[in-house]
Amino acid sequence: MTMTTSPRELPHQPWGRVRQSRRTADRLMKIVATGFTFIAIFVLFWILGMLVVKGIGGLSVATFTAVTPGPGSEGGGIANAIVGSFVLTFLGIAIATPIGVLAGTWLAEYGRGSQLANLIRFINDILLSAPSILIGLFVYVILVEPFRGYSGWAGGVALGIIAIPVIVRTTEDMLNLVPGHLREAGAALGAPPSVVITGVTWRAAKAGMVTGILLALARIAGETAPLLFTALNNNFWFSPTLVGGVSNLPVTIYQFASAPYENWQQLAWAGSLIITVSILVLSIVARRIVAGSK
After folding, report:
1. Residue 82 near residue 275, CB atoms below 8 Å
2. pLDDT above 50: residue 1
3. Within 13 Å, how many C-alpha atoms sit on residue 230's CB side?
4. Is the pLDDT of residue 3 over 70?
5. Contact criterion met (CB below 8 Å) for 226 and 89
6. pLDDT digits 0-9 by tens, 186-238
7. 43: buried, middle or exposed (CB in 10 Å: 19+, 13-18, 0-12)?
8. For residue range 16-54, what is the model confidence (pLDDT) as tens digits?
9. What secondary structure letter does DSSP report for 239?
10. Is the distance from CB of 270 to CB of 55 less than 8 angstroms?
11. What angle do CA 44, 233, 218 make, to 5 degrees?
């Protein structure tokens, strides 16, 4: 006896009507997505256009050679703030790079799949999205309050803590992309794991790791909130010991932009333009490195 199975009967649906509804939904989705894309681009170019128009007016030789002027005075520049920002950013990235690279290396090479590695990744993700003002408060409690004064060291530590999660994540991702047969080839030659990591995997992932460091540098270059609690600001050149307030661009822009003096507001626009151009250059360099490594 043979058993026959009849195909399941589906409700009749004219093909033309189904396809037309799908086309309509697709067109509607495309129109909405395109519209919001143009809105985002319009807002971005609006901000950049206003920044360029207002910032160029404040650029002059004095902007890069003179210190910040006093309240209500004319002239002056933001040279001390530019140099101070450079020093604090360099200090922060110098603290974050070895910690971030070695932590990312441990996660990718030694701690794969372990519970401790998963816990560290979870904490790193929290730090990655933590408000920078919270990190500033943390550094204020452990470095500013006990030593009874603001300092560039505290500012560098705060910026370094912000940069560490970015470098950890980038380093781990780049090392995970290195093919396993490269490690096996190094191990087959009798090299210990430490030599394989430093001589093979780091070299293979070098471009991506450098890109991560540059992205972290761009991330901390414009931070204001943590510096308000750590390095604060002043209108003079910083002390070589980095003790006391250190002039820096983000806090200078914040203070000058909210002041009633037209000269200060003009310098705030110029400082904003300088920071934006610096971050743009860093992003272009990072992309060029990534493109060159492919």
Report:
1. no
2. no
3. 32
4. no
5. no
6. 888 888 888 999 998 999 998 889 989 988 998 898 888 899 999 988 888 88
7. exposed
8. 556 788 888 999 999 999 999 999 999 999 999 999 999
9. P
10. yes
11. 35
**Residue spans of alpha helices (H) in 106-197:** 115-128, 132-139, 145-147, 152-176, 180-188, 193-196
State percent of the chain over pLDDT 70.
93
User: Could you please report the per-residue DSSP string of 240-274?
Assistant: TT-BS----HHHHHHHHHTSS-HHHHHHHHHHHHH
Tokens of 141: 């409690």
- Tell me the C-alpha to C-alpha distance, in Å, between residue 84 and each of 56, 57, 158: 22, 23, 15
Task: For CA atoms 51, 82, 210, 110, give the dihedral sign.
Answer: negative
Return the H-helix or E-strand segment holding 97.
helix 79-105
Name 243's bridge partners: 151
Q: In the chain, count H helices and then E strands.
A: 14, 0
Confidence of residue 294 (pLDDT cuts 50, 70, 90): low
Cα separation, 170 vs 236, in Å, equals 37
Q: Can you give the pLDDT at residue 2?
A: 45
